[in-house]
Specification:
By secondary structure, the chain is of the alpha/beta class. The protein has helices at 15-27, 38-57, 71-84, 98-109, 128-137, 158-166, 252-268, 270-289, 318-327, 340-346, 364-379, and strands at 2-3, 64-68, 89-92, 114-117, 142-146, 171-175, 194-198, 210-214, 294-297, 308-313, 330-331, 333-335, 353-357. The two termini are 22 Å apart. The model has no long low-confidence stretch (mean pLDDT 95).
């Protein structure tokens, strides 16, 4: 199988991820905060070490790391907690995932918030002057931006956007599901209040472990409640971080896998991994350019991207194309990719696109198989 669906979840993982997860359950397996025996202490040490790896990767040593099973749950905790705390005017990019937009739609229907889209030009530039005008008209309480679009891979100038938002005292949330570990970003800057990561995507870890980093002095109300193994006599959630938001038993085996993945990313170097991914994205574009029937979507030469390319094929719907590639052992993603606003902006709604996503581990054999599959599909139309 040739795998081109890394934007959904990366495959394969570095070998050390498989090895560490296997070793964890064979020789450890304790639960954090539920005992003072050796396996529990060992699990806590692993968890604390992994928090340190995250803050090191994102250049934010003073921030708190909160683990969650998925980035979607992390975004829910942040956004719902801030709405409960009183934020009203919320700005998003046109490229947000349903993990953001469905939450906002729910509260918009309840008339608790007003949602605005940041201005992006048709040539995929964030129009900062126009955005300033928007902020003047409707002062932002919260600005949420996907660091890179999961549809076309476009990287947003988040430092500039959030710097502008801070002039209006807005809170900021950066969705790094498609960039953590591949695009270097100084989350320790004062312009970043929250940053969300997905362990199973660009961090090359397993599913079941994601989370967010946050400033410790921000008032974020809990929206989920339960046991933490901490201050159990009180029926109120703890006020300390991260215990206030880490409810239930943590997925320690997934944290073990993420720990190994983060060490691998550190050893390779973020800038090296980005260069390799960019080279393979360029290779995808060169491959598609050889076929007149393939039209890429949202690709502009002087913009910055992660390793995602969306396209359409003349005469074939995206759903049918997905089936045709699957029959030839090529894994791709088709449709709207949980980002309908992006497709409305790009003009590909409702049919969507065929999405190909690569990373540093995408092999020459993968590309050869994809080339043969595209040729075969063309010959059989």
């Amino acid at each position: 199988m040739a795998y081109f669906d890394n934007a959904a979840t990366t495959f394969p993982k570095p070998e050390c991820v498989y090895e560490q997860m296997d070793q964890f359950y064979r020789h450890a397996g304790g639960s954090v905060g539920r005992g003072n025996y050796a396996m529990s202490r060992s699990a806590k040490q692993l968890m604390d070490e992994t928090r340190g790896q995250i803050t090191n990767l994102l250049h934010c040593p003073t921030r708190q790391v909160v683990f969650q099973p998925t980035a979607t749950l992390a975004l829910n905790m942040i956004i719902q907690g801030l709405i409960s705390g009183g934020v009203k005017n919320i700005y998003i990019s046109p490229f947000e995932h349903n993990a953001v937009t469905r939450i906002l739609h729910h509260f918009e229907m309840l008339k608790q918030v007003a949602v605005f889209q940041l201005t992006v030009t048709k040539d995929l530039q964030y129009d900062l002057e126009r955005i300033r005008y928007q902020f003047d008209n409707d002062r932002p309480d919260l600005v949420i931006v996907s660091h890179a679009s999961n549809v076309i891979g476009l990287i947003a100038p988040t430092e500039e956007i959030f710097g502008l938002a801070k002039q209006y005292d807005a809170l900021t949330v950066l969705d790094m599901a498609q960039t953590a570990g591949i695009v270097d970003c100084n989350v320790g800057l004062d312009t970043f209040d929250f940053a969300v990561f997905a362990g199973h995507k660009t961090l090359l870890g397993p599913t079941g472990i994601s989370g967010f980093v946050m400033k410790s002095d921000i008032r974020l109300l809990p929206v989920l409640f339960g046991g933490t193994g901490f201050e159990s006599a009180s029926q109120d959630m703890p006020t300390s971080l991260p215990e206030r938001f880490e409810i239930g038993t943590m997925n320690i085996s997934a944290i073990a896998g993420l720990n190994a993945a983060l060490k691998w990313v550190h050893e390779q170097g973020v800038s090296k991994l980005y260069q390799e991914e960019s080279a393979k994205r360029k290779r995808l574009l060169e491959l598609f350019a050889r076929y007149d029937s393939i039209q890429t979507v949202g690709n502009i030469e002087d913009r910055q991207y992660v390793g995602i390319v969306s396209c359409v094929i003349d005469g074939i719907s995206s759903d049918i194309a997905g089936q045709l590639f699957s029959e030839r052992n090529i894994s791709v993603r088709t449709g709207l990719h949980c980002a309908p606003l992006a497709h409305r902006f790009l003009g590909t709604y409702p049919a969507g696109t065929i999405r190909f996503s690569v990373n540093s581990l995408t092999s020459d054999d993968d590309f050869d198989a994809l080339d043969a599959a595209i040729a075969d599909i063309g010959n059989n139309l």
